[in-house]
Design a protein that fits this description.
The complex is a heterodimer of chains A (252) and B (353). By secondary structure, chain A is α/β, with parallel strands linked by helices. Chain A has one domain: 3-Layer(aba) Sandwich (Rossmann fold). Chain A contains 11 helices and 7 strands. Chain A has helices spanning 24-37, 56-59, 72-82, 94-100, 102-110, 151-154, 160-164, 181-199, 214-217, 221-235, 244-251; strands at residues 44-48, 63-66, 87-93, 116-121, 170-177, 204-210, 239-242. Chain B has a 7-stranded mixed β-sheet, sandwiched between helices. Chain B has a 5-stranded mixed β-sheet with strand order 10-12-11-14-15, sandwiched between helices. In chain B, helix 3 runs parallel beside helix 4 (79-95) and helix 9 (255-270) packs across helix 12. Chain B is an alpha/beta fold. Chain B has 12 helices and 15 strands. Helix content of chain B is 41%, strand content 19%. Chain B folds into 2 domains: 3-188 and 209-235, Rossmann fold (3-Layer(aba) Sandwich), CATH 3.40.50.970; 240-352, 3-Layer(aba) Sandwich (Rossmann fold). Classes of the chains: A alpha/beta (252), B alpha/beta (353). At the A-B interface, strand 1, strand 2, helix 3 and helix 5 of A face helix 3, helix 4 and strand 9 of B. Strand 2 of chain A pairs parallel with strand 9 (207-208) of chain B, so a sheet runs across the interface.
């Protein structure tokens, strides 16, 4: 009988620790499937963050590093400079990348570091129990913004993709979402394009994936997916902000 | 072997390349800027990579990544910059990857100043970052010693899979002396089968990691690290005894301070005062054994430092109550004159008479 479906070889099969309904598992699988389809698993080195995905080094079936909080782009830089022919990627959440690690991500992009970054934005600190993130929405209640994020006190959520898209070293920047199957397919395509960029040595590539956090948002998984669509996407519009053709045409 | 006149910082950079270092990640800070400048010029010629990072924090994490990928890699900085690197150093030790860190230290606290100081003794020898950890810290007293120790540091780091620090005060970095690049003593090193070079589909993934969520596992990991430190204490301690055989007062001094002390000893002996010196070359592990060799004629010890007194704590521990321990130091970039040390010695001997 022909095999119509099997688990990706890009994941080790270790059971995920993620909460029920969390989309980290989906995003892990997309990255793993892309690396498998590109036949790059044996050629890849991943860098895990601090945050909900801290144990990603157990899940991806390739060589892995576990970075200090926010430092994954610097660590990936060190790996890539030693092994320029390998695929090097980091997988980071919003606290890791958009708060403590802003310097590292901006300068990795600035250098045009030929790495791929998977940036999972769920507008909250999940692992530490639901504190306010730099990407927390205005009015969103968290354990450190119990009355809702007040922009007069703590400012506005950061749009990382738009910010990085101003940097010439960033070859590919796209924001996607995984709140429904159609968008999951688009997300996979963007991840593939980002890794293709790296393969072609085009420079820095990043895919921002809008994700959910049913546990800390205090919602059912379905409600949380609706909230991604209704509350997050209007502020964090989906789409491509930068790709190699744009880079070339700008410099032509 | 050709003798060349070199500035300390440049000699250290060349020694690193000589010792097989092919990756350098750093950030400018005085008084060590000649190291990254030299590396930017010379490392590409050696087929390596120089990269100026956006911060000391990024630099040490680039080192962490490169070391995990199996490279011989180094960073350099000075006191406040080393403070920023402490997070990364702790992770590097925890993950058991080798690298070399050069600290050309200046006065503190805070921004402090840019003149030579030894007030980084504690942040260099006490780990500095979080957790139970140590690394070998060599404190050269001249440029030749800095060259020899830097080149060998890469062998030692690889041998233990642990960082090694070269701690030179700003004087060591800034002065010029003649040096020879000798053949580096080699160790028998295991191939880096743990490095993340891609599985090639031929082996299970390698993971560079300092996280152990199960407390029993973390304790086991810590005990394993402690075994390495015990071996370092037993096998990597280095020191020089100078005129200690008949000394009544034994100075303890390292780096630039030891050079002034050496001249003070000559002056004291000319006037009939029997002084000598223990010069730690490894400040971690601290040379306890040197103290155990001292004869019964010793009446007092005196730590001389370019600080307000940091190593003196280790001297007290090593003395273990056997001798009174005095201290003389200048800080903030001030360098003690020979006569100050001579006077401090005479006062101490009068006190213990």
């Amino acid at each position: 009988m022909p095999t119509v479906f099997e688990p990706t070889k890009g994941l080790t099969g270790v059971e995920f620790h993620y909460c029920p309904g969390c989309t980290h598992g989906v995003i892990h699988r997309l990255v793993a499937e892309v690396l498998e389809e590109m036949e790059e698993l044996g050629n890849s080195i991943g860098v895990a963050p601090v945050g909900c995905a801290v144990l990603a080094y157990k899940y991806f079936n390739c060589d892995m590093h576990e970075a200090a909080h926010g430092r994954a782009p610097a660590m990936a830089t060190g790996v890539k400079r030693v092994l320029p022919d390998k695929m090097v990627f980091s997988y980071q959440g919003d606290g890791d990348l958009a708060s403590i690690g802003t310097a590292e991500i901006v300068h990795a992009a600035g250098r045009g570091e030929n790495i791929t970054v998977i940036f999972v934005n769920n507008a909250i600190y999940g692992m530490t129990g639901g504190q306010m993130a730099p990407t927390t929405m205005v009015g969103q209640r968290t354990t450190t913004s119990p009355l809702g994020r007040d922009p007069r006190q703590v400012g506005y959520p950061l749009r990382i993709s738009e910010l990085l898209a101003t940097i010439d070293g960033a070859a590919f920047v796209e924001r996607v979402s995984v709140h429904n199957p159609a968008n999951i397919r688009k997300a996979k395509k963007a991840i593939r394009n980002a890794f293709d960029c790296q393969k072609q040595r085009s420079g820095f590539s990043l895919v921002e994936v809008l994700s959910n956090c049913p546990t800390n948002w205090g919602m059912s998984p379905l409600e949380s997916l609706d909230w991604v669509k209704e509350a997050m996407i209007p502020y964090y519009p989906l789409g491509n902000f930068r790709r190699p053709e744009m880079q070339e045409s700008e410099h032509a | 072997m050709e003798k060349v006149l070199m500035k300390g910082n440049e000699a250290i950079a060349q020694a690193a390349i000589h010792g097989g270092c092919r990756y350098f990640f750093g950030y400018p800070i005085t008084p060590q800027n000649e190291i990254p400048e030299y590396m930017s010029r010379e490392m590409p010629k050696a087929g390596g990579v120089f990269l100026q990072a956006e911060s000391e924090v990024a630099a040490i994490n680039m080192v962490y990544g490169a070391a995990g990928a199996g490279a011989r890699v180094m960073t350099s900085s000075s006191s406040p910059g080393i403070a920023l690197k402490q997070e990364g150093i702790s992770y590097i030790v925890g993950s058991e990857v080798p690298c070399v860190i050069v600290n050309i230290s200046r006065g503190g606290p805070g921004l402090g100043g840019i003149q030579p100081a030894q007030s980084d003794y504690n942040q260099s020898t006490r780990g500095g970052g979080n957790g139970d950890y140590n690394m070998i810290v060599f404190a050269p007293a001249n440029i030749q010693e800095a060259v020899d120790l830097t080149a060998e540091a890469f062998e030692i780091a690889d041998f233990y899979r642990n960082p090694v620090m070269i701690l030179g005060d700003g004087m060591i970095g800034q002065m010029m002396e003649p040096v020879v690049f000798h053949e580096t003593p080699k160790r028998e090193l295991e191939p880096k089968t743990w490095a993340t070079t891609g599985t090639g589909g031929k082996r299970a993934p390698n993971i560079i990691n300092s996280l152990h969520l199960d407390p029993a596992n973390l304790e086991k990991h810590n005990l394993h690290l402690q075994q390495k430190y015990a071996r370092m204490r037993a096998e990597e301690t280095r020191y020089e005894l100078y005129q200690a055989d008949d000394a009544e007062l034994v100075f303890v001094a390292y780096g630039t301070a030891s050079r002034i002390v050496r001249n003070a000893i000559i002056q004291l002996r000319e006037t009939g005062v029997k002084a000598g010196m223990i010069r730690p070359i490894s400040v971690w592990p601290f040379p306890q054994a040197a103290f155990d060799q001292l004869g019964s004629q010793v009446r007092a010890l005196m730590s001389v430092e370019l600080s307000c007194g940091q190593m003196v704590d280790d001297v007290r521990i090593a003395a273990a109550g056997r001798w009174p321990v005095g201290f003389y130091g200048r800080s903030g970039g001030m360098i003690p004159a020979q006569h100050e040390i001579v006077d401090a010695c005479r006062s101490m001997l009068e006190e213990v008479a």
